[in-house]
Amino acid sequence: MAIIECPFCDEILEVEPPDRFHITLSARPMSKNFHGDIIQKKVRCTNEDCKKIVTLYWIAPIEHFATM
Fold first, then answer.
1. What radius of gyration, in Å, describes the C-alpha atoms of the chain?
2. Rounded CA gap, 23 and 64, in Å?
3. Cβ atoms within 10 A of the Cβ of 25, count?
4. Contact 61, 23 (CB under 8 A)
5. Do 38 and 47 form a contact (C-beta atoms < 8 A)?
6. 50: alpha, beta or left, given left = phi > 0 and alpha = psi -120 to 50?
7. What is the pLDDT of residues 34-66, one digit of tens each?
8. Are 64 and 35 a contacting pair, CB within 8 Å?
9. What is the pLDDT of residue 59?
10. Closest Cα to residue 24, out of 46, 47, 2?
11. Residue 34 burial (CB < 10 Å; 0-12/13-18/19+)?
C-alpha cells in the first residue's frame, strides 16, 4: 500500500500497487530505471468536495529484480 495526497485538494489517499512487481509509483511517467511496462492507474479522490481523478504511473524498479 502507498499513501499519496490528492494534488487538487490534499486529501490523503491509500492506493494499492497493481501487482507485486510494480511497486514504485509516480505522478508523471518515468523514462528510465525500470523493468517492463509502466502501468497507468486512475484513482478517484475520496474527498466529497473534490472527487477528481488522479493518474498514477506504477513501475517495476530494476533494483527489485537485481535482488531476486
1. 13
2. 9
3. 17
4. yes
5. no
6. alpha
7. 557 889 999 999 999 999 999 999 988 765 444
8. yes
9. 86
10. 2
11. buried
- Residue 43's domain comprises 2-66
Decide: 38 and 59 in contact? Cβ < 8 Å.
yes
Encoded amino acid at 25, one letter: L
Count CB neighbours of 22 within 10 A: 21
pTM: 0.75
Total of domains in the chain = 1
Burial of 14 (0-12, 13-18, 19+ CB in 10 A): exposed
Over the chain, what is the mean pLDDT?
Answer: 85
Number of H helices, E strands in the chain: 1, 5
Task: Say yes or no to pLDDT of 21 above 90.
Answer: no
